[in-house]
Amino acid sequence: MAASKFDDTLAAIELNAARKLNWDYKEFKECFSFTVNQEAIEIAPKKIQLQESELQTLKQALLDYGFQYKKTVNDFILVFEQDVELR
Questions:
Q1: What is the DSSP code string of 4-24?
Q2: How many CB atoms lie within 10 A of CB 2?
Q3: What is the strand order of the sheet 40-45 is part of?
Q4: Organism's domain of life (predicted)?
Q5: Angular region, 66: left φ>0, alpha ψ -120 to 50, beta rest
Q6: Is the pLDDT of residue 8 over 90?
Q7: Are the C-beta atoms of residues 36 and 4 closer than 8 Å to each other?
Q8: CA dihedral for 40, 20, 26, 9, sign (positive or negative)
Q9: pLDDT score of 14 more than 50
Q10: Is 24 among the domain residues?
């Protein structure tokens, strides 16, 4: 995926996740760190502990854009990869 297209997709994912969680976008950006690693997205909560329902909502927000949950690193960082069929 081209870098600019991926950046646009990442911004849309962030907005979608904030909306689904019913959070203000600015508050959302302060609470989560999104890192792009090749065609995977790593999400690390900065200040908060997510409840299970919020975690499921965050996973769904990424599924909306063709990213699937892959793993959790150190019980903290969530890793999502783009669905192979959509690449």
A1: HHHHHHHHHHHHHHHHHTT--
A2: 7
A3: 32-37, 40-45, 77-82, 67-73
A4: Bacteria
A5: left
A6: no
A7: no
A8: positive
A9: yes
A10: yes
Give residue 19's domain range: 3-69
- Over 60: is that where the pLDDT of 51 sits? yes
**CA terminus-to-terminus distance, the chain:** 8
Write down the pTM of the prediction: 0.74
Q: How many domains does the chain have?
A: 1
- Counting DSSP H helices and E strands in the chain, the numbers are 3, 4
Residue 18 lies in a domain: yes
Cα–Cα distance measured from residue 73 to residue 79, given in angstroms and rounded to the nearest whole number: 8
Side-chain-facing half-sphere of 23: CA atoms under 13 Å = 17
HSE on the CB side for 44, CA within 13 Å?
A: 9
